[in-house]
């Protein structure tokens, strides 16, 4: 019995060893890598799908090996004049050039394919347009990138055209974060842990780039938590591609945490995070050009430099570090210069400092101007896109209304035909039942219309909010221009322009804050406008008593904008000229009332020094008076000016 048990035990042990051996062999990577699997596919379409479905495709062979192989396939396809295969291989070729960082070649090939894209399947179009989107972003050609995104939306590849990442690259990180939260937060489900991780990582990036490092660290830690939950979620089956992309995301978050610690001068805390990020990126993003990897290497080199570990510093600075972005090149040169300074090699320090000086002189001087032009272009593109979305929404609402009218007409025809067809008591009963059904349908249609109107109001509020933001952007641009201008007259002109832009922005702010989007309550608007002007001119104790009498008066936007600009001119002139010496007894009286349903009366007086004697002669040359006359003409009236014993009086009736 013991011998039998011994034999059974030995057999089970051998079986277990064989099973473990088989499982171990299954776990070991096959000798055949992705490159050989790619070659083993028979058709161009299969190779295309395999290539783009394999994120870590350069695990054994470099991008140049892949490029050589694809060139062979491409040459054979060109000899056979197989246009479909040619397009497949060219798109693979463009992606490889993008992966190795040669964005110009990638874009050149993509543009050739773009001209011939009409017969492509939607999947191939999406791959091409996504590649061009990424390439334009790397080359900082944002206008073309926006055009590509518009086309992606038209094809249904994306739902909306995003602008926030472009704003961030132009330095407007807070604006980018606000737009990103508004656009993306509503689309992320609470149980979408990967989506939550990506969302928090992006928010952390905007905070870090905006130099809010402690808050960014908190957000990155949240992102790390969501990534770990996603990886450990055994209920969700994950493909190799999903797992690889998750590891790359995890590496990016880890690197971002390290960058935050480095910026906070906590270099010992930063180094483990940066090293871990670099190792993961090298494993899962092998042989691909990565700005994140370069930034991590530069950051860890700086950390070691600050800690005095010069050997590690040079290891990372010379580790095949070939930055493409100007900021990274400047940082690399600065780190080398700092290293040579600390080691006493002042000759080499001087060489790297001179390189940075040449780069700044030749490139960075023009970069600010280019960024301003790009920002203006992006703002114009966003405004145009918003207007097109509004037009689309209006068309959808109109089509919905037409459909409801058509449905109502059909119901009425059926109802009438039933009345004439059915006689007697049965007809009356049937008609009664039908009327009940109609009432339900009408209630449903009324509900649809009410929802459409609510959506329209929300859209209009968003429009006014965006217009206000754009006007504030214009005001900021005028402020920037003021700082770069030395001419006093030019500065005054720019300040006046900025004040007028603020007056218009305030109109749109009041509109999107109101429940009723058609009119503006003028008492509150005038008070806000006075406060805005007063904040500019109140220097040295303006104690002017301002009385506003416009309670209960409401104007639509077509009349409120010219009215606001007129009032802005009058109040600005009073603050600038009416009380030059002592304004303790200064008084301004603003009176606005409705005479009839569509008519009104406006009066503005102050008790200042009044108008000069040659006012009539100046009227033709004064931009302020000419502007007010034109604005009053828009209100179908004429500006009247009365010189009083104390000050001046402006008044007019308007329609």
What would you say this structure looks like, in words?
The structure is a single chain. The protein is mainly alpha-helical and 655 residues long. Helices cover 73% and strands 6% of the residues. It contains 24 helices and seven strands. The chain has helices at 2-27, 34-40, 44-53, 63-80, 83-99, 103-115, 122-138, 142-154, 164-169, 173-184, 193-209, 213-232, 240-263, 267-284, 291-306, 310-317, 326-342, 346-421, 424-483, 488-513, 522-537, 557-578, 615-619, 623-634; strands spanning 519-521, 545-549, 554-556, 587-594, 600-606, 640-643, 648-654. Strands 2-4-5-7-6 form a five-stranded mixed sheet, covered by helices on one side. A two-stranded antiparallel sheet has the order 1-3. Strand 6 (640-643) and strand 7 form a beta hairpin. Helix 5 packs parallel to helix 7. The longest helix is centred in the middle third of the chain and has 76 residues, at 346-421. It is globular and about 90 Å long. Residues 1-31 have low confidence and may be disordered.
């Amino acid at each position: 019995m013991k011998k039998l048990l011994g034999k059974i035990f030995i057999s089970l042990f051998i079986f277990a060893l064989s099973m473990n051996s088989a499982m171990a062999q299954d776990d070991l990577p096959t000798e055949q890598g992705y490159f050989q699997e790619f070659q083993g596919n028979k058709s161009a379409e299969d190779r295309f799908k395999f290539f783009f479905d394999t994120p870590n495709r350069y695990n054994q062979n470099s991008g140049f090996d892949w490029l050589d192989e694809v060139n062979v396939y491409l040459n054979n396809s060109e000899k056979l004049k197989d246009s479909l295969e040619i397009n497949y291989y060219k798109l693979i070729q463009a992606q490889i050039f993008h992966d190795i960082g040669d964005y110009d070649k990638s874009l050149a090939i993509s543009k050739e394919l773009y001209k011939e894209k009409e017969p492509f399947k939607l999947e191939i179009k999406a791959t091409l347009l996504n590649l061009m989107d990424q390439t334009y972003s790397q080359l900082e050609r944002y206008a073309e990138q926006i055009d590509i995104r518009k086309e992606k939306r038209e094809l249904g590849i994306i739902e909306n055209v995003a602008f926030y990442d472009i704003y961030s690259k132009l330095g407007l990180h807070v604006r980018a974060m606000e737009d990103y939260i508004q656009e993306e937060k509503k689309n992320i489900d609470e149980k979408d842990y990967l989506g939550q991780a990506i969302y928090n990582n992006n928010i952390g990036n905007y905070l870090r780039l905006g130099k809010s490092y402690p808050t960014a660290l908190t957000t990155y830690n949240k992102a790390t938590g969501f990534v770990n939950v996603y990886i450990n979620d055994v209920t969700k089956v994950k493909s190799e591609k999903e797992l690889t992309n998750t590891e790359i995301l995890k590496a990016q978050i880890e690197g971002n945490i390290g960058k935050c610690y480095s910026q906070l001068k906590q270099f010992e805390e930063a180094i483990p995070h940066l090293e871990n990020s670099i190792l993961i990126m090298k494993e899962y993003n092998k042989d691909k050009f990565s700005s994140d990897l370069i930034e991590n290497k530069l950051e860890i080199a700086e950390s070691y430099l600050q800690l005095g570990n010069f050997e590690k510093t040079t290891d990372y600075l010379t580790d095949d570090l070939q930055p493409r972005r100007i900021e990274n090149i400047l940082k690399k040169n600065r780190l080398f210069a700092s290293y040579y300074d600390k080691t006493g090699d002042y000759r080499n320090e001087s060489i790297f400092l001179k390189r940075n000086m040449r780069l700044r002189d030749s490139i960075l001087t023009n970069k600010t101007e280019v960024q301003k032009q790009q920002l203006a272009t992006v703002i114009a593109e966003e405004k145009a896109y918003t207007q097109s979305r509004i037009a689309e929404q209006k068309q959808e609402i109109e089509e919905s209304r037409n459909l409801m009218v058509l449905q109502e007409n059909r119901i009425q025809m059926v109802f009438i035909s039933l009345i004439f067809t059915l006689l007697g008591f049965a007809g009356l009963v049937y008609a009664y039942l039908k009327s009940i059904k109609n009432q339900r349908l009408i209630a449903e249609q009324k509900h649809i219309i009410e929802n459409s109107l609510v959506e329209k109001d929300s859209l209009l509020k968003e429009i006014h909010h965006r217009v206000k933001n754009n006007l504030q952007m214009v005001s900021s641009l005028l402020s920037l221009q003021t700082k770069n201008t030395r001419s006093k007259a030019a500065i005054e002109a720019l300040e006046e322009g900025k004040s007028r832009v603020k007056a218009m922005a305030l109109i749109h702010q009041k509109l999107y804050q109101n429940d009723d989007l058609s009119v503006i309550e003028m008492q509150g608007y005038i008070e806000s406008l006075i406060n805005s002007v007063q904040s500019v001119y109140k220097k040295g104790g303006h104690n002017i008593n301002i009385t506003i009498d416009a309670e209960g008066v409401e104007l639509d936007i077509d009349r409120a904008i010219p009215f606001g600009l007129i009032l802005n001119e009058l109040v600005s002139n009073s603050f600038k000229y009416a009380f030059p010496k002592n304004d303790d007894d200064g008084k301004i009286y603003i009176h606005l009332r409705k005479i009839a349903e569509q008519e009104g009366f406006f009066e503005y007086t102050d008790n200042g020094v009044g108008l000069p004697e040659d006012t009539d002669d100046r009227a033709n040359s004064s931009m302020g008076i000419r502007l007010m006359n034109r604005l009053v003409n828009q209100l179908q009236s004429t500006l009247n000016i009365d010189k009083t014993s104390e000050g001046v009086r402006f008044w007019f009736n308007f329609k």
